C-alpha cells in the first residue's frame, strides 16, 4: 500500500539546518539518501550533488532527499528531484532564517507556511523548534516481476489495439509525471514482440528520455539482447531513432512509439503521422521540464485533419507515491505546474476594444494567485519549454518586464520582455571582432557579430522573450494591440529598438510583420527544440534605432539571394517566398545574355546546366512579381527549389516528378508561363 511522502521545511542558519537534516534522516538508509547542495561536505554520509545535477537522477528512487536552498534555489532542479522520492519517503528543504529579498522565495515561503498549517505530512520548523518524527519508508524485497497498475493495463491494451485494429487510428497517451507512462510503452512493446511483431521503433527528444521504456522492455524479454536504445529478440527488435533521422529514413515498422511528443517540433510529428500508419504519441501534461497542454491543443487540430479516428487516453494513478500525495500537491502549487489560463467560456465574447493594457506590478502579483496562474498558464499553453525557472525569472529578474491585456479583470494576453544593450566600447569591439560572446544580449550581439553594425552595441533594446494570446480569442487583434501599447509606452523611455527572435513560420511572420516588425536576420543553424531556423525581427523606436535597423535591412536585402542557395537550401519554399517579400530582397541585374539564355531554355532545348546561373538570377526577380502568385503551388515550389539549387532526387521526391528529365520539362513550362504573364502585364 502506498503511503504519504513527508516534507519538512527547516529555516535557520546553515549549521543548524544541516545538523537537523542529519537528525531527521538518522533512521533512513544512508545509501538511499541524496543531498543537493552547492557545498559538498567532506565527511558527508550521503551522496552529494549540486542542484544542477538533479536531472541526472531521473529514473532513480530515494528514501530521502535533502534540498539545500540556503544559498541557491534552482526551481527546475527542485521540480525534478521531487519526483525521485518514493512512497513514504521524505523531502527536507533547508531555507535561510532571513529570507533573501526575492519574490520567488517570498511566495515559496508563504506557501510552505500555509501547507504546514493545513497538511499532516508537511512540517514548517524554525531554528530550535522541536523536530518532528519521520518514519523511514518500508524496505521491500527487490523483485524482477513487474506489477502493472489498472491504468497501465488499460494503456497497454490501448497500445495493442493501435497495432491490431484499423490502420491510421493513432493513440495520444498523456499523464502527469510518475504515472508510469514510459514504462507502459516498454511493456506494450515487449508484448508485441512476444506476439510475433518484428519492428517497434521508438523516438523521443533524446535517448535518455526513453531509458525506462527500454529497461521495462528488456525485463519482460529476459532472453533478449539488451543494448543502449536497442532490444534484440530473435529476428525482432525494439530500437531508438532520433526524430530527424527517422523523418529522413525509409524505415517501416509494426508500431512507432513517440515519447514526450510535445518536445518534438509539430511539423516533424506531422511528417511521422503521414509516414507511419500505426503510431502512439505520449506526452507529460504537467512536468518540471515543460508541459504537454499546449501540444494537446495544437496537435489535436492536425490529428483531426489527417486521422479523425484518433484516440486519447489519460493515465492518472501514481506508481511511486500515494494518490492525493501532499508533497506532489505542494510542488504543483509552488511551481505552478498545473497553472491554466482563464476558462474559454468566461472570455468567449472578448474583443480588443474591451481589453485593458497593463504593465504588471510583480510585487502585487504574488498576492494574487488567480492572476499569477492565469498569466503563467498562458505561457505554459503557448510554449512547451515553459519551466518553473521561467516563473522564477519572471518574478525575480529586475531587467524583465511583464505586460498584459485584461478582459473583465482576467489576463487574456501577455508579453514578457528583457532589457539588453548599453554595452561599453571595449565589449562592442570584442563582440564585433569575434573574440567575445556574452550570455544573453541576443539583439545587440547579433547585430554586432553577424550584421557587423558597430553602432548597434551602445543602443538600448527591449527584447520580447514570450508572447501569448488566449487560444479562445486569437485572430481578434488583441496580440497586435498588446504590442502597439508596449511600443507606445517604450517610446517614452530611453529604449531605441524593440525586437524578438523566434522559430520561423508563415503564421508568425504574418503576425509580427502586421505589428510593424521587420526581419533583419535568419539564423544559419536549425534550432534543437523547434527544428527550424530562427528569425530576428526589429522595430525602431528612436532615430538612432532607425539608423541601425535600416543598416541591418540593407545588409540582408543585399545578401539574401546569395544566402538562399548556400545557407537556406532546404528551407520550406513557402518561407523563402514570404521572407523574400518581407525583406524586399534585391537581386543582381539581368543582362542581355541572361535574358537570351532564359528564352533559349524555355523555347528551345538549351541545357539546364548552361542556364543555371541565369535561371537563379531570373527566379530571384520573379518571386517578387505579382504574377508569381498565379502559378500553382507545385510550380511555385519548383521555382524556389531551383533558386535554392536543390539536388534532383530531392526535387523529385518532394514534388512527385519522375527524375531529372521530367523536372526540367516542368521547369521549362514554368519559365514559359511566367514569361507569358510578364508580356501580358
- Low-confidence spans: none
- Name the CATH architecture of the largest domain: 3-Layer(aba) Sandwich
How many helices? The count is: 25
The major β-sheet equals:
8 strands, mixed
Number of domains: 4
Structural class: alpha/beta
Shape summary: globular
Strand content: 15-25%
SS elements, strand count: 23
Q: Mean pLDDT, rounded to whole units?
A: 91
CATH fold-level name of the largest domain: Aminopeptidase
> For the record, what CATH class of the largest domain applies?
Alpha Beta
Order of strands in the sheet with the most strands? 9-10-11-8-12-13-7-16
Helix content: 40-55%
Rg is: 29 Å
**End-to-end distance:** 80 Å
Write the CATH homologous superfamily of the largest domain: Gcn5-related N-acetyltransferase (GNAT)
Report on this structure.
The protein has 681 residues and is an alpha/beta fold. The protein folds into four domains: 6-126, 3-Layer(aba) Sandwich (Rossmann fold), CATH 3.40.50; 150-315, Rossmann fold; 352-582, Aminopeptidase; 592-680, no CATH class. It is 42% helix and 20% strand. It contains 25 helices and 23 strands. The strands form four sheets. Strands 9-10-11-8-12-13-7-16 form an eight-stranded mixed beta sheet, covered by helices on one side. The longest helix is centred in the last third of the chain and has 25 residues, at 543-567.
Amino acid at each position: 500500500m502506498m503511503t504519504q511522502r513527508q516534507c519538512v521545511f527547516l529555516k535557520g542558519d546553515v549549521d543548524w539546518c544541516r545538523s537537523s537534516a542529519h537528525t531527521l534522516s538518522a533512521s533512513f538508509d544512508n545509501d538511499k539518501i541524496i543531498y543537493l547542495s552547492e557545498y559538498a561536505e567532506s565527511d558527508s554520509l550521503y551522496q552529494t550533488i549540486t542542484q544542477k545535477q538533479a536531472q541526472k537522477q531521473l529514473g532513480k528512487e530515494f528514501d530521502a532527499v535533502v534540498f539545500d536552498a540556503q544559498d541557491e534555489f534552482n526551481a527546475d532542479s527542485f521540480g525534478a528531484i521531487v519526483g525521485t522520492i518514493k512512497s513514504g519517503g521524505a523531502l527536507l528543504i533547508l531555507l535561510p532564517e532571513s529570507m533573501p529579498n526575492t519574490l520567488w522565495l517570498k511566495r515559496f515561503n508563504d506557501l510552505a507556511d500555509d501547507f504546514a498549517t493545513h497538511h499532516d505530512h508537511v512540517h514548517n520548523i524554525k531554528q530550535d523548534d522541536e523536530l518532528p518524527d519521520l518514519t523511514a519508508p518500508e524496505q521491500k524485497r527487490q523483485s524482477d516481476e513487474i506489477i502493472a497498475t489498472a491504468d497501465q493495463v488499460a494503456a497497454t491494451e490501448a497500445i495493442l489495439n493501435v497495432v491490431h485494429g484499423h490502420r491510421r487510428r493513432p493513440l495520444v497517451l498523456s499523464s502527469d509525471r510518475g504515472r508510469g507512462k514510459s514504462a507502459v510503452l516498454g511493456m506494450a512493446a515487449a508484448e508485441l514482440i512476444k506476439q510475433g511483431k518484428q519492428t517497434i521503433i521508438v523516438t523521443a527528444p533524446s535517448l535518455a528520455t526513453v531509458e525506462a521504456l527500454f529497461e521495462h522492455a528488456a525485463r519482460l524479454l529476459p532472453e533478449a539482447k539488451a543494448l543502449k536504445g536497442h532490444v534484440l529478440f530473435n529476428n525482432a527488435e525494439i530500437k531508438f531513432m532520433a526524430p530527424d533521422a527517422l523523418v529522413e529514413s525509409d524505415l517501416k515498422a509494426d508500431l512507432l512509439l513517440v515519447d514526450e511528443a510535445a518536445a518534438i517540433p509539430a511539423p516533424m510529428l506531422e511528417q511521422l503521422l503521414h509516414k507511419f500508419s500505426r503510431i502512439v504519441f505520449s506526452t507529460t501534461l504537467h512536468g518540471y521540464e515543460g508541459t504537454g497542454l499546449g501540444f494537446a491543443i495544437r496537435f489535436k487540430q492536425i490529428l483531426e485533419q489527417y486521422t479523425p479516428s484518433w484516440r486519447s487516453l489519460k493515465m492518472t494513478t501514481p506508481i511511486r507515491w500515494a494518490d492525493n500525495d501532499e508533497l506532489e500537491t505542494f510542488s504543483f502549487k509552488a511551481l505552478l505546474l498545473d497553472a491554466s489560463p482563464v476558462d474559454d467560456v468566461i472570455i468567449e465574447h472578448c474583443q480588443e476594444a474591451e481589453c485593458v493594457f497593463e504593465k504588471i506590478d510583480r510585487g502585487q502579483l504574488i498576492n494574487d494567485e488567480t492572476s499569477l496562474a492565469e498569466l503563467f498558464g498562458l505561457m505554459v499553453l503557448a510554449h512547451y519549454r515553459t519551466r518553473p525557472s521561467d516563473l522564477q525569472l519572471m518574478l525575480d529578474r529586475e531587467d524583465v518586464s511583464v505586460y498584459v491585456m485584461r478582459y473583465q479583470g482576467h489576463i487574456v494576453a501577455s508579453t514578457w520582455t528583457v532589457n539588453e544593450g548599453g554595452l561599453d566600447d571595449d565589449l562592442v569591439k570584442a563582440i564585433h571582432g569575434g573574440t567575445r560572446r556574452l550570455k544573453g544580449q541576443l539583439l545587440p550581439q547579433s547585430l554586432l557579430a553577424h550584421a557587423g553594425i558597430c553602432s548597434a552595441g551602445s543602443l538600448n533594446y527591449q527584447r520580447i522573450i514570450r508572447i501569448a494570446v488566449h487560444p479562445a480569442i486569437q485572430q481578434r487583434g488583441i496580440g497586435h494591440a498588446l504590442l502597439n501599447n508596449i511600443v507606445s509606452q517604450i517610446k517614452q523611455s530611453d529604449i531605441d529598438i524593440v525586437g524578438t527572435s523566434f522559430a520561423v513560420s508563415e503564421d508568425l511572420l504574418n503576425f509580427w510583420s502586421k505589428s510593424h516588425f521587420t526581419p533583419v536576420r535568419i539564423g544559419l543553424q536549425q534550432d534543437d527544440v523547434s527544428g527550424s531556423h530562427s528569425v530576428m525581427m526589429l522595430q525602431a523606436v528612436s532615430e538612432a534605432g532607425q539608423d541601425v535597423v535600416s543598416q541591418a535591412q540593407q545588409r540582408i536585402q543585399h545578401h539574401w539571394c546569395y544566402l538562399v542557395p548556400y545557407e537556406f537550401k532546404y528551407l520550406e519554399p513557402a518561407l523563402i517566398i514570404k521572407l523574400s517579400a518581407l525583406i524586399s530582397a534585391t537581386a543582381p541585374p539581368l543582362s542581355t545574355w541572361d535574358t537570351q539564355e532564359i528564352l533559349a531554355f524555355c523555347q528551345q532545348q538549351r541545357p539546364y546546366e548552361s542556364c543555371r546561373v541565369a535561371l537563379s538570377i531570373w527566379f530571384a526577380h520573379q518571386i517578387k512579381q505579382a504574377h508569381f502568385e498565379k502559378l500553382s503551388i507545385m510550380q511555385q515550389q519548383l521555382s524556389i527549389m531551383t533558386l535554392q539549387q536543390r539536388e534532383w532526387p530531392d526535387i523529385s521526391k518532394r514534388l512527385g516528378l519522375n527524375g531529372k528529365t521530367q523536372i526540367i520539362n516542368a521547369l521549362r513550362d514554368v519559365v514559359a508561363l511566367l514569361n507569358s504573364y510578364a508580356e501580358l502585364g
